[in-house]
Design brief:
The protein is mainly beta. It folds into 2 domains: 73 residues, Efflux pump adaptor protein, beta barrel domain (Elongation Factor Tu (Ef-tu), domain 3, Beta Barrel); 59 residues, conserved putative lor/sdh protein from methanococcus maripaludis s2 fold (Beta Barrel). It is built from no helices and 11 strands. The strands form 2 sheets. Strands 6, 7, 8, 9, 10 and 11 form a 6-stranded antiparallel sheet that branches. Strands 1-4-3-2-5 form a 5-stranded antiparallel sheet, with no helix packed on it. The radius of gyration is 24 Å and the shape is elongated. The mean pLDDT is 89.
Amino acid sequence: MQAPFSTGDTVTTQSGVYVLGDLSSLLVETFVPERFVAEIRQGMRAVLWFEAIGEERFDAEVIEINPVLDPASRTLRIRLRFLRHDPRIRAGMFATVSLVTSRKTDVPVVRRTSVINTYGSWIVFVADENNIARRREVTLGIDNEEYFEVLSGVGMGERVVSAGQNFLSDGDFVRVVE
């Protein structure tokens, strides 16, 4: 991995001439904010992606959890191991890590882009049966990179406006595109 000396350098018996490492089993080290610490478990699955590689996702699992939070950043250091070796992943690359800390099924969700934050309230526009936009204040639950869970304000099966909603007012006509 490293050869810190060049031909002609003086070395002693204490000098490390080479640094060896096994690059076939790389680890990812990341830091989790304090609010998620209670959900982190060994063996928990994660999805990673690298800007240098593109849109492809890589699966990993948590193998090490530091027992102490960093007092300055209030974060917890964890290490992840890839489930499958890929030669395109190199030591020193930066990864984006997605950890699923809670999961729900059969709940209403809306795209993140559909939700508008106005003066501390979250709103969406729902298209009624006459394609009229109706402003709804919503209460949001868990989220991921693409969706918010909706705890109240929108029910299953309702049509939520997902484009152009920043320019809508309650009662405006909308064109529904399937």
